[in-house]
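in:
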């Protein structure tokens, strides 16, 4: 059957949507706004599950050398900035708005790679970048529930995501697989977030959190950590099985999340803000098309 070829894509899309919805639930509904602890918990569980999976032979991962880990260190720093700022932004912004701004990370990686490689400009890619940038700039002006801090954290998030993608392209090393890169990211994140927990006040403030002893809170945090790890495995599986369709499934997953989120989480949208969301995803689809044509 034709649909069996895309079972990895369907699995990825399901885990993607459920993972973001779970994180949004913990961050916004339960209001657990302690990102060093939340992300530290997720990355520590992710690291443990990844190492356990390697030990049991479920996934393959080579021994990581010290030199390879040091070369990848800038990527790990950007990864920490990505998840920290992303948690802050997601706790304050609706999922459709969050993805609209996140799509603008393509603009950051596009500019960085153009400055480095100075390749010939492709008009389709230039138009797609322009659509995503225009949507991101216009969205705060049209948001009925404008939150300045949320948008500032989203800017930090998209800059880190875009720089991380550009670094991955520049790195171009066969020394580290995707799983090995993520393992370094996990271990570095646990260390850095543990150090930052007290200076940021999260370590002290969490004890005053009213839902700390709630079963719903514990269930949400455990689910978010497990889903984050499953999303990693689903992403790696998708890249290895349907590499040509990976970008398509990523866009479809975002569209599914954007379409379903208003039925699960309350958010105030108007026609103009919805147009920004639509234009941004059209821009990302156009960029994917231009990459295939080039």
């Amino acid at each position: 059957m034709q649909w069996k070829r895309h079972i990895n894509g369907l699995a990825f899309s399901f885990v993607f949507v459920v993972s973001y919805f779970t994180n949004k639930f913990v961050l916004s509904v339960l209001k657990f706004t302690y990102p060093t602890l939340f992300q530290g918990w997720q990355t520590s569980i992710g690291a443990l599950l990844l190492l356990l999976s390697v030990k049991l032979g479920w996934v393959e991962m080579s021994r990581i050398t010290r030199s390879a880990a040091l070369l990848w260190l800038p990527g790990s720093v950007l990864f920490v900035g990505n998840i920290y700022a992303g948690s802050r932004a997601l706790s304050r912004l609706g999922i459709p708005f969050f993805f609209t701004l996140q799509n603008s990370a393509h603009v950051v990686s596009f500019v960085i790679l153009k400055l480095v490689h100075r390749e010939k400009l492709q008009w389709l890619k230039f138009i797609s970048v322009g659509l995503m940038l225009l949507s991101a700039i216009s969205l705060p002006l049209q948001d009925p529930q404008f939150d300045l801090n949320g948008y500032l954290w989203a800017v930090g998030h998209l800059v880190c995501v875009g720089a991380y993608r550009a670094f991955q392209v520049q790195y171009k090393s066969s020394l580290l697989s995707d799983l090995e890169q993520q393992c370094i990211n996990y271990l570095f994140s646990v260390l850095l977030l543990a150090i930052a927990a007290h200076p940021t006040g999260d370590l002290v403030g969490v004890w005053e959190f009213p839902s700390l002893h709630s079963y719903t809170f514990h269930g949400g945090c455990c689910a978010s950590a497990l889903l984050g790890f499953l999303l990693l495995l689903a992403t790696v599986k998708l890249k290895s099985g349907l590499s040509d369709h990976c970008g398509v499934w990523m866009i479809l997953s975002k569209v599914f999340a954007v379409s379903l989120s208003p039925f699960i989480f309350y958010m105030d949208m108007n026609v103009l803000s919805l147009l920004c969301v639509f234009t941004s995803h059209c821009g990302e689809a156009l960029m994917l098309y231009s990459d295939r044509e080039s």
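note: Residues 45 and 201 are 22 Å apart (CA to CA).
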